[in-house]
Amino acid sequence: MKKEYSFANSKPNPYIAKLHKQISIRLDVNTLDYFKKTAKEVGIPYQKLINMYLADCVGKQLKPSVNWK
User: Fold this and answer.
1) Crossing angle of helices 46-59 and 29-42, rounded to 10°
2) Average pLDDT rounded to a whole number, residues 36-59
3) Is residue 50 part of a domain?
4) In the chain, how many domains are there?
5) How far apart are the C-alpha atoms of 41 and 43, rounded to whole Å?
6) Average pLDDT over residues 40-63
7) How far apart are CA 1 and CA 4, in angstroms?
8) Is residue 33 part of a domain?
9) Would you state the torsion angle of the CA atoms of residues 62, 17, 14, 11, taken in this order, to the nearest 10 degrees?
10) Which whole-number Å values give the CA distances from 23 to 3, 10, 20, 47, 66, in the listed order?
11) Confidence check: pLDDT of 2 > 90
12) How far apart are the C-alpha atoms of 67 and 61, rounded to whole Å?
C-alpha cells in the first residue's frame, strides 16, 4: 500500500447522482412513526425502509386504489 495516492487525474462518478435524490415529502405523523418503529425493529434506517417499500411497489407496478364515497 502506498503512503500517498494522487487523485489529480480522477474523474467524478457519472452515476452517483442517479443513485439517490434528496426530496422533501410530507407524511402523516402516524405513517412516519410506523416506519420509524418498524425500521428500529428490523435494524435499518427508516428512510431506507421507506425507499425499499416504495421500490417494491414500483417493481410490482402497484397502483393505489382510491374509493371516494
Assistant:
1) 100
2) 96
3) yes
4) 1
5) 6
6) 95
7) 9
8) yes
9) -160
10) 40, 29, 9, 11, 25
11) no
12) 19
> What length does the chain have?
69
Grid look-up 462518478 returns 13
3-class secondary structure, 26: coil
Rounded to 5°, the CA angle 26-60-32 comes to 25
User: Where is pLDDT greater, at 36 or 64?
Assistant: 36
Q: Which domain holds residue 50?
A: 27-59
Tell me if 68 is assigned to some domain.
Answer: no
The residue written with cell numbers 371516494 in the block is: 68
Is residue 39 within 8 A of residue 45, CB to CB? The reply is: yes
Chain mean pLDDT for the chain: 92
pLDDT exceeds cutoff 90 at 61: yes
Q: How far apart are CA 42 and CA 28, in angstroms?
A: 21
